[in-house]
Design a protein that fits this description.
Elements lengths: L5 H15 L12 H9 L14 E6 L5 E9 L18 E2 L17 E2 L1 H5 L1 H14 L5 E11 L5 E11 L7 E2 L14 H10 L4 H28 L1 H6 L2 H15 L23 H15 L4 H15 L2 H4 L7 H17 L7 H8 L9 H4 L6 H10 L8 E3 L6 H17 L3 H14 L1 E5 L2 H14 L6 E3 L13 E4 L10 H9 L5 E7 L10 H8 L1 E7 L13 E7 L10 E5 L5 E3 L7 H4 E3 L3 H12 L16 E4 L22 H20 L7
Helix pairs in contact: 2-4, 6-12, 6-13, 8-9, 8-10, 8-12, 8-18, 9-10, 13-18, 15-16, 16-17, 19-20
């Protein structure tokens, strides 16, 4: 194996920077306290604690005082520029496939983190340093540059490089810069143009979808690992109820999240005190209260949340030290290292819905079969928010909010619309704050599910202001709703249409989008559907896939879209769509992640976009669903509220076509010839 020329490669690029007049810093030189501390406090390239040493460090500054760190990592062996996965992502930390042998230089167990890739490849190592700086919270964007070189036959050094932009706005998914061959883009006169290029590097919808799936899959995997550790511990198994496990988990998350003016608990804060009033659990409960105050939760909300959480953390098995350490310390370490990074991504996902749907045995629900709590998948909540015309000025409510998945989707849609339409930074910030604080309302009667909703919206940063733990039929504060989103409990009167009728009667304008058992629109809505039509217009009926909820529920559902406060007239045209094939293949393997159980096998994203366009009266870019192929029907309905199903408007043509006749003749002749050749007899 040829010897490395890493030092020579490093020197080549330092010389470049010198020739461009770009100030740079070596491995051990201080660049500034923010970057120094971030590199020191983050996990090293070998997985140890602290002390990361990029080969070259640069801090560029635009004419508008925008400061961007640049981390450069050098290697000196052919093939060591970059390592990618089979699917094309830059490979960072992987897992050991098997345990090391006894006495190995690098002892490890199967499934342990394997840092070899970021140690051995230039780009991978540079991105590791970039993430360390982002972890430090002093910067929200970093440029990671990998450089590599190897000797040519003539004795010269062949060099190569790739540069990537790593930012919080892109949820840290590295985006490659132009195919630069040297570091000239770091020259002072080129920095402004570089900033323009960086601002254009945004994630596509497809990239966002793929990234979301990966983050959700990781989150699922880590949640299940923590749940397993709780299950394997005999103390916890007998000591904690299912709800208490949930409260324990949410409390640990609140303790580990960063928020302005309040640092998260670090491992050194755990002292292992053996005192009922001062121990590792009280450390966490104090941090939870402080966290909720920083999130501007009301005193009543703080009191309600802590009344649920504190009794769990007071359990002696959690805080009482054994060999100087408490059990709660180990659990917190798992949450801090495995869960918090997923939650602190820029992705607006229904994280607690993921917790619920992944581990619904965590949540013990009284009369579970009657309450039939089934949380709507994220891609469906977003779809429905769009169908209901949600925008930055919408006022959105959900009267049976569950874990607040609909409100998460609506908030994300509203914020994206605001970002697209409002260019003034101060005005945009004010608008986003108003969206979170005033333009969302969720009501949930079940206390433990309500806890999930609160956590969900806090993670969104913070839309929990109008989350109400109450009976939605008793609660009404005059919220000026213009969008209503709902997946009601199907055991409720009218299959859940009682919620819909009540909510729409309180609205004066806007749209509603309901996911409900399909037959509720075919006479089983117990009169609620007829009442709804007296004041509202049914715009669309969309038949959804049968296994939409995976293994939790297999009822046939439909989405019904309404225009509020306009009575339905007999000659109004309703758009019926058979969306039972939405492009996703669904499995219900209990131990598998969503990545396995939900697969985009037939252009799912394009199909959802097409149906959205059809309902909104726009021209679709694809043609999976058309009147010509029978998957779209435009028809009228009666005012009785009992003919809202797609199949009720299908025309079944029993008259054989010419092609049917030709096919039958061909089959007959084929059979007859075959019989003759075999010498078989038959009656003419």
């Amino acid at each position: 194996m040829a010897s490395s020329v890493e030092e020579k490669v490093e020197e080549i690029y330092k010389t470049q920077l010198d020739s461009y007049g770009v100030k740079h810093f070596t491995k051990t030189e201080s660049i500034n306290s923010s970057i120094d501390d971030a590199l020191k406090n983050s996990v090293s390239k070998s997985g140890g604690s602290g002390n990361n040493y990029p080969d070259i460090k640069v801090l560029i500054e635009t004419s508008k005082m925008r400061r961007i760190p640049v981390m450069i990592e050098a290697k000196g062996t052919k093939g060591k520029l970059i390592k990618k996965t089979a699917s094309g992502e830059i490979e960072l930390v992987t897992k050991w496939a098997s345990s090391s042998k006894e006495g190995a230089k690098n002892p490890h167990k199967a499934g342990d983190d394997n840092y070899s890739t970021i140690q051995n490849y230039a780009v991978n190592g540079a991105i590791h340093y970039a993430n360390a700086i982002l972890d430090g919270k002093g910067y929200s964007e970093v440029i990671a540059v990998g450089v590599n070189g190897f000797p040519e036959k003539d004795g010269s050094i062949h060099v190569e490089m790739e540069a990537y932009y790593v930012s919080e706005k892109n949820s840290r998914l590295p985006k490659r810069l132009s195919a630069y061959t040297d570091l000239v883009f770091l020259k002072k006169e080129n920095v402004d143009n570089l900033a323009v290029e960086l601002d254009k590097l945004v994630l596509s919808e497809k990239e966002l979808e793929e990234l979301s799936k990966r983050v959700e899959a990781t989150l699922e995997e880590k949640i299940k690992a923590i749940h397993q550790s709780l299950y394997d511990n005999e103390k916890f198994k007998s000591y904690l109820t299912t709800n208490e496990k949930l409260y324990l988990f949410t409390g640990l998350i609140m303790s580990g999240l960063s928020t302005e003016g309040l640092a998260p608990i670090i491992m050194a804060d755990f002292k292992g005190n053996d005192d009922k009033e001062d121990n590792d659990s009280t450390l966490i409960t104090k941090r939870i209260k402080a966290f909720l105050k920083k999130k501007h939760c009301s005193d009543n909300k703080i009191k309600m949340i802590t009344s649920l959480l504190t009794p769990v953390f007071e359990k002696e098995a959690l805080w009482k030290p054994e060999n100087g350490e408490s059990a709660i310390k180990g659990l917190y370490k798992q949450v801090k290292e495995d869960i918090i990074p997923c939650l602190e991504s820029n992705l607006h996902l229904d994280f607690t819905g993921k917790i619920f749907n992944s581990l619904n045995d965590w949540v013990s629900i009284e009369n579970d079969q009657e309450n039939d709590v089934v949380l709507t998948p994220r891609y469906v909540t977003t779809f429905m928010a769009h169908l209901a015309r949600t925008d930055k000025d919408s006022f959105v409510w959900d009267k049976a909010m569950g874990s607040a998945g609909f409100l998460v989707a609506a908030m994300d849609t509203m914020i994206k619309d605001a970002q697209a339409k409002i260019k003034d930074a101060d005005e945009l910030e004010k608008k986003i704050r108003n969206i979170k604080e005033n333009q969302l309302l969720g009501i949930e009667i079940l206390g433990n599910i309500y806890m999930l909703a609160i956590l969900n919206m806090i993670l969104m940063g913070d839309g929990s202001s109008n989350m109400i733990n109450d009976d939605s039929f008793k609660y009404n504060d005059g919220f000026p709703a213009t969008v209503f989103l709902l997946n009601p409990p199907y055991s409720a009167p009218g299959k859940g249409f009682n919620f819909v009728e009540k909510a729409l009667s309180q609205m004066t304008t806007g749209y509603a989008c309901i996911l409900i058992q399909e037959n509720a629109g075919a006479g089983q809505g117990e009169g609620y559907t007829k009442k709804i039509l007296q004041k509202n217009t049914l715009l669309a009926s969309i038949r959804m896939p049968y296994k939409l909820f995976g293994g939790k529920s297999t009822v046939q559902t439909a989405i019904y879209v309404f225009q509020v406060a306009r009575p339905h007239e007999e000659d109004d045209i309703v758009t019926f769509i058979d969306f039972s094939n939405d492009g996703y293949t669904r499995l219900s393997r209990k131990k598998s992640t969503q990545e396995v159980n939900l697969q985009n096998t037939d252009h799912a994203l394009e199909r959802y976009a097409e149906v959205e366009a059809i309902v909104l009266g726009k021209k679709p870019k694809t043609s999976y669903y058309t009147e010509a192929n029978g998957l779209v029907i435009k028809d009228t309905i009666t005012l009785n509220g009992d003919d809202w199903i797609f199949t009720q408007h299908q025309t079944v043509d029993d008259l054989p076509s010419e092609d049917d006749f030709k096919s039958a003749v061909e089959n007959y002749l084929s059979w007859k010839v075959s019989a003759i050749l075999k010498g078989e007899s038959f009656d003419d």
